[in-house]
Every structure is written in structure tokens, then in C-alpha cells.
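Lab meeting minutes (informal)
Scribe: AK
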Amino acid sequence: MIRLLLVAISLFLAPCLSLATSPQSELLTQRVTELLPHEARWGVTVIDMKTGKEIISAGNTNELLSPASLVKLFTTGAALDLKLGKKPVSLTTGILHDGRVEEGTLNGSIYLRGNGNCLLSADDLKKMAQTLRGKGIQKVTGQIVADESRFDTRGLERSRKGAGHAPAGALGLDLHTVLVVVTPGDAGRQPVVSIEPPNDAVRFAVAARTVTGGTSSLAVVRNDDIGYRVTGNIPSGSGIQRWRFPLTSPARYTAQSFKTVLAEEGILVMGDISEGKTPENASLLSTVPGPDMKRFVKEMNMHSLNVAADNLLLAIVSNNDGSPSTRDKGVAVVKDHLARHGISSAEARIVDGSGLLPGNRVTPKAMARYLAAVSHQPWFRDLRDSLPRPGLDGTLRNGTYKNERFRAKSGSLENVVALAGYGVDKAGREIAFAFIVNTPGPLPPNARSAGDEVMRCLAE
């Protein structure tokens, strides 16, 4: 009985004993635990990038924890790895047509075939329209067809609301969001309301008024992708107010927006907007190259763009057989990438590209090991440079710690705070680190600064 009791006690104390393996670990543990609730599960692993040795281990570094947006690091690595292969990731948008072009009239339909470039812009659409005009096209008898068949997004549906949680998809503008812009008018009159990207199909119900004083009570409510209600008062002396919303159907909105831009360029489209697949015999009119992978992942990681990450998960799938890219196929590519860099499925369970889904799990030790392992790859600089510097860039710009020698990806959910990346300590030693915290309930506000405290400690 005594032996069983001793075994039970040793098992209970095992995680605690790992907290203080070195003076550095003790100091880090003390600082972190002061900020976290007592029920928090957490771990920090730090690796010397030159030797590959683990130099700090605090908390439970072998527990599978939800990493939130740290998953984007794996998605980034998988995409950059493919960049050096025979068929790098392509985000090119195609503009095709069926029918014939005769005397300035395209007797057929135009197809917008998406390939995952969620950074596509209204300026890109304008350049497309100018290309068509340059080919002498003045009228289109058919439709504008949105083709998003390249991706099957089932399994990546959003449960959270807001512009940061717009749906993934092969075709879409401006991160699959729209911006409603409200400008004060003359006193007593309605404000001026517009939308970006432009879309003639959008309708506004404006019950708002411009007033001479007081504070703004302006509110914009989205009914659907093309219907918005604007209410309240906006002071005449106030500046422009902006409201951003996620789209339900980014592909359809893109086609509607393209029809608007074509009209602005003097090209009349007789048909309506529809969604469908580009015919195999369609002819290419033009293409819009997507951003190169270095720029795309930098935008994605600097600002933690969820739609970009899930699009990238689907874009890394080779679909030579013509079948659509799926979540499972993309996850398989990422898992293969992780395995080639020494990370097993027992220590990293990945279910999407962004980290939004609850099934993602990784140990702090595995995350740090991965970051150290890929530092020897030819694409490593592109990965590292895609990460914000604390106190200076992107999602880390407004933190409490500033250090241009650190670069890190943050992760945040209701009950998760995480940080992983690279840094240089006081002695000039280059390190890779991972810090992940999970709690049973919502994190208290002060716990959000724990990542800054970890970097501050590591730098010292």
C-alpha cells in the first residue's frame, strides 16, 4: 500500500519537477505563473538553434494543447517547402470565355476561375476590364460566371462571427470581406454611404442623419451580402466611419463586382451573375497572377489572416486529376511536411490551416523543435521574415514588449494564448521557442501579456 502511495505521489509531482530543471526555467516559471490562473495548462520550450539542444523547459512541454493560430506556421512551412518543388503553389486567377468574339461583341459568357488568391483587389478587376477593352470587347451577351470549383471548403465552416472569420474559398476579393464607408453629409441630411469593393447590386436602406453636434450613434447592420441598413446620427464634423463585414458568398460578390467594373470601363454585360464551373473548351482571355508565396505568407502571418491560411491549405494540394482540393487533402500535405521534419502525429494533430478549429493540438516541445529544424531549410528566411517583431509589426505591434531581434507568431482564442518564433538572447545566442497556454474557461485580461513576459525573460 505504501509503495502504491509513493508511486501515485511521484506521478502527481512529475510535471511539477520538470518546471525547475535550471535557474532559467525557475525564473521563467515564476514570471509566467504570476500572470496565469492556477488552473492553466501551459508549457515553454526553448532550443539553441546552433546546437539543436533544448536549453529551457518549463511547465508541461509534452502535453497536447490547442495552439490557435500557431498552426499557420505549419501551413506556411508546407507551402514554402513546395515552392522549391517541381510545381510551386499557384494563386493565379483566370478570366476565360466561351462563344466567339465578333465586331466587339463577345457572344458568350465570361468565367472568373479562382485559385485561392484572397488578396485579389478591385484594382485587379479594373486591370482585367482594361485588358478586355484592349481586346476590343464592348459587349458581352452572356453572363459573368463565378468559378470556385478548385476548392471544396467543407469542414472549414466558421463558427465565429466577424470580418476576421470570413469563409475560405477559391474566388474572393479583399479577404472575402466588404467595407461600408459612411461620410457625413450636410446637416439634417443623410450621410453618403458607399461600399468597397464596388458593386452596383448592393442596396442601402439609410435612416441615418447628419447632425451639427453631439456624438455619433451611427450603426450599420448587414442583412446579406448586398443589403445593408444604416441608422443613427453622425456629426457633420466627424471623420469618415468604416464598417467591415465578412461575405457569405465571396465568389458571387466578386462576379457582381467585376460586372460593375466592366460597366465603368464601357463594357456592357447583358446576362446576370451565376456560379458554375468553367467549360473545358473555354478560351483564356487574361490572368491575374497571385502574389508570390513570400509576400502571401508575410501578409498572412503578420496579420494572422485566417481566410488566407485556410485558402493556402487548399492551394497546396496538387489536383492534377481535376478533382477539387479538400481539407483532408491539405491536412495530409501538412502532416507529410511535419513528418519530414521530425514531428509525429502523436505530438501534432492538425485539422485546418488557420488554427480556428477546436481539433488542432500540438505540444510546446514539438512546436519549438519544428521551428529549430526548419531553420536549416533554404526557405527559412521567408518563414522567419513573415513573422512580426514585438512592439513593431502586425499582431504584436501593440504589445507591452519591444525587441527587433525577436520574430514570433501569436495565437489567441477565448481560452488560448500562444506565441512561437525566433529570437536572440543577451549573449547573442539564436533561439527557437514555443509558449502555449490553455485554460478551462476564458483567459483573464492580464494573461494575454504572458507571451510578452516570456520574450522579455528569454532576451535576458
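Next up, CB showed the second protein from the same session:
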Amino acid sequence: MIDPVSLLVDLVRTPSPSGDEGRAAGVLADWARAHRLEPEIDDAAVRLVVGGTRPGPTLLLASHLDTVPPGEGWSVAPYDGVLRDGRLTGRGAVDAKASVAAMAAAAAALAAAGGPAAGRLVVLATYSEETRDTTMPRALERLGGAPEAAVVGEPTSLEPCIAQRGQLLVELSWTGDQVHAGWAAGRRPAPVNAISVAARDLVALEGLRFERQHPLLGPVAVNPTEIAAGVARNVTPPICSAMLDIRTTPAYEHAEIVAMLRERLAARVEVYSDRLVPAETPAGSPLLAAVTRVRPASVPFASPTCSDWVFLRHLDAVKLGPGDSRRSHTADEAIELEEVRAGARLYADIAREVLR
């Protein structure tokens, strides 16, 4: 097996915050050429393609090169890629450069062995996944046909994730009467206070019940995360607004949830973002069966985090990669190197099992 560690270290030592992935893409492409692959680079992704000896399906291994900014609280420089005691520490080590490196190593190993028995393996390393400007949709359009199956490279500790929550962002707004607070108590009719109306609605959210629950993800979760109101401390507010972060499941369409909010609340309900719909592996998935055959001890699970799986949700797909998702976006983000090597072996084994 070709070792992915040197590539991972070089990628972590190459800063690639969302929107600035060019140098990291070059690192990946140079590594691929050195391992007798022919990378294709454009404004959507780095693509590595390994063809089989006869026609067959396309298996997609998809991850992303961008990272969130380093933030604060690090004990080491976030882009130094510190190696210590078999562990690599640095921004992107877990999310998701370990998956990129392991996928590239799997592709190189298959190519060195003459390719898969049938079909083709495609590795996609896309950009800006951590933002709403992800290039995954554009990269998929350029594949020349939809793949039959896809593995989304995100940290799952090498266990197959078979369902993930979506995210629906909804803005609520309420209007009231702007008057001098000193005169408000004596006015008839009493002025409408936008904050008071908002408070009643926000309390009512606690009583919102979603009867349909996903067997792995449970119920839809609604949380107010931002609120804004007020002109001055002695003026009743004419407007109040709040943002709801709604973590959705495949049990409900986003439009259903929005309709429920509009029915139950006094607020004006506007959708801020609904692109991150939930995803799940289809029942009877041949891909999941292949993963289980090559890794019999696999424990399928559901994830609360979103990913580019949303753009592959109509395919037979799982989310799977090295690293602990709880370390994503944290200070001192780190990964065990042996897990990255195991990830490369697992990706290659899955490819051989699917493309046979």
C-alpha cells in the first residue's frame, strides 16, 4: 500500500482556508504525478481517475481541500504540521485532508496494480466545502456522467455513516409600535411590543412536536441562535428578528417544517438557507454491503454534522473517513497516522470490492 502520510503532512503544512486552495491543489497534483497518476485541475476540484480493464460502474471518492480558519487556543502553530508520537497536529489534519490523502493513496495503489477489474475510480478533492460556495455541484457536472456509488470523505473514525442531519436556517421577524417607553403604559390601545410578541413565539417553539422520528437521528431539533431588537433603551421596539438553526432529518421535507412554523407562529417566517438537506444511505445499499464485506466489524451510525453528501444524496453513498469528527474545527486538531494509513487501505479495498 502506498503511504498517505507524506502527502497529508504536506497538505496540512499548506494553508488552504476556503477560497484559497490553489497551493494545496498543486501539492496534491504534484504528488499524484509522482505516483504515475494524471491529475486534472480546474476551478472546481482536483480529479484523479483510475480506469479498469473492462467497462463497469463509477465509484466516486469525494472530499475537500479547504479548511476553516485556525482560530485561537493552539499549543502549536496551526500550519506547522507537528509530528509527535505517531500523531499529526495541524489545521485540516482531521477535516478533511486525512480523507483526501488516504483517497489519493488508494487511487495510486489501484493504478500501480493495473487498475480495478471493471469501471473506474474517481477521486474528487473540491474547494470551499466549509462555506455556502462549495464547488461540489460544479465538479459533479464535469464528471461526464453520474457515478453509481460514492464515499464522502469526512472524519467518521472509519465507521460508515449512513445518515446525516441537514440544516435549515429560518429568520423570524415581528413588528411592533415604536413609542416613548414612558408613555407606553398609558396608551390605549396598548402599543405592540415586538420583543414581547417574539418572546411568546420563542417559548411556543418549545412545544413544537415533530411526530415522525428518524430511527437513527431521532427528532428534528430547533434552536434559536440569534436575536436582535431595539432602537434605544427608552423606546419600544418596532421590530425584532431571530434566527432559527433547525437540524433536520430525512423524516421531514424542509418545506413541511417551514409550513409548520408559519401555521404555529405569529412571526413572519423567511427561509435564509435550505440547501443542506439531510441524506441517508438507501435501504439495501450495495455499497454498504461492500463496506461490510471488507470491514466486517463495521458499526454503521448517524451523524449530526452536514457535508457535501447533500449533493450526492440521490446516489448509493456513505460518509466514511479517518479521524474523530469531534476534533474538526478545534484548536490542536490532530489525527493518528495509523488511522490515515488504515483509511487508505480501506478505500482501496472498497474500490476493489465495488469495481470487480
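CB comment: The first strand starts at residue 40 and ends at 41.
No objections, moving on.
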